[in-house]
Design a protein that fits this description.
Chain lengths: ~300, ~200
């Protein structure tokens, strides 16, 4: 395959995958929702979970975006330094977002700052958003595609604490965000928490925490325990589906961390709604691919 | 049996509803979110759709153009709280009877619902294909220059729901009641977790 053919192949893969993951929830989310639904016994909670299940079936059947808010498309890229299309990735992803918008179709969600006009294409200034990590000596590329609606983006916030506030301050911050804004963000939620020495670091990590497969814990034992404690605590609040109260509040709590400055603890929260549309794809240098978030799917 | 409201909705029907009830809608549902609220209430522009007795939907859909009109692909509720700033005046100005959205609304909307007889209801968020299949037809669109999400899409709907009444005409607010409970529960839970994360020593 020559370079032109590779560019064309990757553009097609990413267009189809962007379109696909806006219509189908990943395997881990689907399994978790089923598990949470079985625990509910109140009338309203069951009405809501039944609508959710029916909706996913209809989205599959009619091949449509399962939620109307298909977000501002984001790509979190881990690209090998020897990936043959390294220089072309940005253009390819921009084209993929543009084409998927027509093909899926996705809602038009890119509003230009100051001009305050919706571009109607889901492309705009720095959009689709691309986050880069370069992996030395690798030849392939791993891409996390993410669509977050406005509803679950709205609670996103961060704060830089003084060390005296401790990890206790982190817990308090997360719970305050959840009880004030979580209700409107379409629970059961996935809670991404980033901790670092400055707010930008914490914010980026909080978003990346949302891509970890459900059920996988922080690699540090204290981190894992803190995730478990917060998950149980948030579930004990009983926000229930759509905040109408129920047995649970969250699908999970994930923390991602970076060493901090001695004088600061920055914490940020990013929220994923129940319709958590994340998709992970690994593309090799020969343009073969594997979708890890939705097993067994070919585009 | 399903409780069904039909537009134009009468005050007497609404007065029988209580927060937590589940209803469905037949008739006209018009999408209306941030921009039309701002235009009407802040900028004093007249809405191009007469909403008296009808329902609005805090929603920005995905639609596609077809030869003879528009087809509803995906339409689910957006966060209603964003319209809280405008909703009381909006109800007073338009005579809208049913406001459908997601999550709770605040004291202004409660006052508007009580004074002018209207209710706020929740359609389960994220269930946008389900909602789209309950839209029989998009009859017309207004203010399309605002873009697909913000335009007023005039939809004829059949058994549109489930709609969970969150604010009734009697001053009840389901989400505010829940919020108080959640906040009460939060205090001891947070205290317990904090006692176990004292890692800075």
């Amino acid at each position: 395959m020559n370079k032109e053919a590779k560019i064309q192949a990757m553009t097609e893969i990413m267009t189809k995958f962007t379109s696909y993951m806006g219509k189908h929830l990943p395997d881990d989310v689907t399994a978790k929702l089923k598990e949470l639904r079985e625990q509910e016994d109140s009338y309203l909670a069951k009405v809501v979970y039944d609508s959710m299940t029916e909706n996913q079936e209809l989205a599959n059947q009619l091949n449509r975006p399962c939620c109307q808010d298909t977000g501002v498309v984001q790509y979190f890229v881990k690209v090998g330094s020897q990936f043959p299309l390294l220089a072309e990735v940005q253009d390819i992803l921009r084209t993929a977002a543009l084409e998927a918008t027509k093909e899926a179709p996705l809602r038009h969600n890119a509003v230009q700052i100051f001009e305050e006009k919706n571009t109607g294409t889901n492309t705009g200034e720095r959009i689709p958003w691309i986050n880069w990590e370069i992996i030395p000596n690798e030849k392939g590329i791993n891409i996390e595609v993410y669509m977050a609606g406005g509803g679950c983006s709205l609670p996103g916030q961060g704060k830089t604490l003084m060390p005296a506030a401790g990890y206790e301050g982190v817990v308090e911050f997360v719970f305050d965000v959840m009880t004030s804004y979580g209700i409107n963000a379409c629970p059961p939620l996935l809670v991404g928490i980033g901790i670092g020495g400055s707010i930008d670091v914490a914010a980026e990590l909080s978003k990346k925490a949302l891509f970890r497969p459900l059920g996988v814990r922080h690699s540090n034992s204290r981190g894992a325990e803190m995730e478990r404690l917060m998950e149980k605590g948030l579930n004990d609040l009983g926000l229930g589906p759509q905040g109408l109260s129920g047995k649970n509040s969250v699908m999970g709590v994930h923390m991602e961390t970076a060493a901090r400055h001695p004088s600061t603890i920055s914490v940020a929260v990013s929220i994923g709604c129940w319709a958590h549309r994340k998709g992970n794809i690994q593309i090799n240098e020969d343009m073969t691919y594997e979708i890890t978030s939705h097993r067994g799917v070919t585009l | 049996m399903k409780k069904i409201l039909t537009t134009p909705i009468q005050n007497e029907e609404l007065e029988q509803l209580t927060a937590g009830d589940v209803v469905y809608l037949n008739g006209y549902l018009v999408t209306c979110r941030d921009m039309p609220h701002r235009r009407l209430v802040e900028l004093g522009q007249k809405l191009p759709v007469d909403l008296a007795g009808l329902a609005i939907f805090h929603a920005g859909p995905i639609v596609v153009k077809e030869d003879d009109g528009w087809k509803m692909i995906s339409i689910g509720p957006t966060t209603s709280m964003r319209m809280e700033k405008f909703e009381k005046e909006f109800i007073a100005e338009t005579g809208v009877k049913l406001i459908v959205g997601k999550g709770g609304m605040g004291p202004n909307t409660v006052e508007g619902c009580q004074t002018y007889k209207a209710v706020h209801a929740v359609f389960p968020g994220g269930c946008a294909v389900l909602a789209a299949t309950e839209v029989e037809e998009i009859e017309r669109v207004e203010w399309l220059e605002l873009g697909m999400p913000e335009a007023l899409w005039v939809c004829r709907v059949k058994e549109f729901g489930p709609l969970i009444i969150s604010i009734d005409t009697k001053g009840n607010n389901l989400f505010e009641t829940n919020k108080v409970l959640f906040n009460e529960k939060k205090v001891p839970i947070v205290k317990e977790i904090c006692s176990q994360v004292k890692f800075i020593k």
